[in-house]
Design goal:
A three-stranded parallel β-sheet has the order 1-2-3, with no helix packed on it. Helix 1 packs parallel to helix 2. By secondary structure, it is an alpha/beta fold.
Length: 73
């Protein structure tokens, strides 16, 4: 079974970095990670680009949108 992990993010690049490092060390790989940037003034796009590379082994997608809160994101 494949899982989708959807993570809404607002001004948390350090936490996203910790999350990506942790997930890249997991032995279970049958998941995709979707990070949705919710109008952050401190975006995590550079962290995602750096740590979400093919070398990390993560199936990662990153989206940006205007701020609407975690429920709608």
């Amino acid at each position: 079974m494949k899982y989708s992990l959807i993570v809404p993010v607002y001004n948390r690049p350090d936490e996203v970095e910790d999350l990506l490092r942790s997930l890249s060390l997991q032995s279970y790989r049958n998941f995709e990670l979707i990070i949705v940037e919710d109008g952050s003034s401190i975006p995590c796009a550079d962290v995602v680009a750096r740590l979400g590379s093919v070398d990390s082994g993560l199936n990662l997608r990153y989206f940006e949108k205007t701020n609407s809160g975690p429920g709608q994101t």
